[in-house]
Design brief:
The protein is an alpha+beta fold. It is 45% helix and 14% strand. It has two domains: 44 residues; 56 residues, no CATH class.
Length: 110
């Protein structure tokens, strides 16, 4: 245990100093916690798009299959799509993924 001064003026000075150190320490702690929170948010994976169009290989890269955004069976050639694009492609005869069934999700049945 440290030895504290016995007189009142030095004890008040010490208390004032320690309060200042505590405020600086709490501010540094808050800044570190905020930085950690922001870093955790940056590390989160991005949200998958709602719909995906799987493209074929070759000239024009036509749509070959449609998927719901979180489907596990998408290929590397998939691109994000809007609801209107997926509905239009379904009515044009582009097949829906048999696993995620975007046609059922949109209410567009064959």
């Amino acid at each position: 245990m440290s030895v504290l001064p016995p007189d009142l003026p030095r004890l008040r000075t010490l208390v004032t100093y320690l309060r200042g150190e505590l405020k600086r320490t709490e501010a540094a702690l808050a800044a570190a916690e905020e930085a950690e929170t922001q870093e955790a948010v940056r590390r989160l994976p991005p949200e998958p798009p709602a719909w995906l169009i799987e493209r074929g290989i070759g000239t024009g890269r036509p749509a070959i299959r449609l998927h719901v955004g979180g489907c596990w069976d998408t290929g590397k050639r998939s691109i994000p799509a809007t609801t209107e694009q997926v509905r239009h492609l379904l009515t044009e005869g582009v097949p829906a993924c048999p696993h995620c069934r975007p046609d059922t999700a949109l209410g567009v049945l064959e």
